[in-house]
Amino acid sequence: MTRSELIAILADRFPQLAARDxxxxxxxxxxxxxSALASxxxxxIRGFGSFSLSRRAPRVGRNxxxxxxxxxxxxxxxxxxxxxxxxxxxDQAAQSS
Length: 97
Description:
Belongs to the bacterial histone-like protein family. The chain is α+β, with helices and mostly antiparallel strands.
């Protein structure tokens, strides 16, 4: 599902909201999550899952074109862990298919 599909579903499910209001709501939620992660906080949505940051240590990589060694610096990457309810619902849907 893309962001625009999510906005369209919200607009259909809640007809009292204009499409631009759905767009604003989705944008606000995603921006808040991004700001929290960027500041090092953890984001938890009960029943869905949690987003946190994982550190990738610096390492020595190789340039595939030349074969030369390259130092890859450390970086922080977002990590998602599915919640129990999400795992169970996905499992049920997969078993019924």
